[in-house]
Amino acid sequence: MRMPASASNDASPTRSAADTAVVLVNLGTPDAPNTSAVRRFLSEFLHDHRVVDMSRWLWCPLLHFAILPLRSSKVAHKYASVWLPEGSPLAVHTRRLAEAVQRELPQHRVLHAMRYGKPSWKQLLQQLRSEGVKRVVALPLYPQYSTSTTASVGDVLEQAQGLRTRMIGDYHLDPEWIAAVADSIHRHRASHGAGEHLLFSFHGLPQRFAAAGDPYPRQCEASARAIAQALDLPDEAWTLSYQSRFGRERWLEPATADTLTALAARGVRKVDVVAPGFAVDCLETLEEVALMLAEDFAARGGQLRYVPCLNDSPAHAAALAGVVLRELADWQ
Predict the structure, then answer these.
(1) Residue 53's pLDDT band (cuts 50, 70, 90)
(2) Buried-exposed string 217-256: b where 16+ CB fall within 10 A, e elsewhere
(3) Rounded to whole angstroms, how far apart are CA atoms 40 and 156?
(4) N or C: which end of the chain has fewer CB atoms below 10 A?
(5) What is the dihedral of CA 61, 64, 65, 71, to 10 degrees?
(6) What is the pTM of this model?
(7) Omega of the bond prior to 33 within 30 degrees of 0, cis?
(8) What is the mean pLDDT of the chain?
(9) Neighbouring C-alpha atoms within 13 Å toward the C-beta of 50
(10) Which has the higher per-residue pLDDT, 56 or 46?
């Protein structure tokens, strides 16, 4: 899904590579695994109308007087369980991925930013303009497009002044990306043995978003099927599910936790889980899947083997560089 370029009156068109910046944009993360840092991060994240589209009169009091006080310390504990010496996994892996893509695109300037938290996406755009950059290509690190994530990156980009901008809306069927994910699964299974079943776990989304036309679930299904086909897996050998539910409303189904319960009830004892909706490992993959869901599955007599995200692997960097180059070639 290609997003249109936007141009301001004071930014003249140019094709100079030196005047072009490529920015990988991820969701964001707290600065530290403590309650105050998590509360600041969640406050910024959950104030975005793309994430929670309730009336601000209803949502803001609920957020500040119930959700943040109750959840911040619990979420901080979760972050602490996966925090790396260099910082948050999402921050560390996103930075390394940007560095890897930079090596693939030496003729361009490659940076990274976070939609929420630091380095700030909005502030980076202002900085780039002040440094004389004329064009910015944004690559949100969400392979599948959603109005709740990708569109929010675009909201900030549309407000940028003095820059010609372009955003890559998704890359859910990019051949090089599909091949990279499939190869990572193949190599993991070659090293650890193949599980009895492969589970594709994507981040969840309220069902009403899909009902309103959000393409996210269709793109998740297309990605999973393409990866399974690249692995020559029959339909009965894999399943798609959705994780990270929040709140009481109906979310996309089937849920990853429910799917694992059903697999255990069928007598499946070894399940490989991959999360191709996440570009890099983060709280949702490392704590929710590799720790929490693995423990739950073990309690039912099974073994969950988590296949890491592509992170800063050479194949991932090459795939994303290819996506960017094709976008630049199409941008006149």
Answers:
(1) confident
(2) bebbeebbbbbbebbebeeeebbbbbbbbeeeeebbeebb
(3) 19
(4) C
(5) 130
(6) 0.94
(7) no
(8) 94
(9) 18
(10) 46
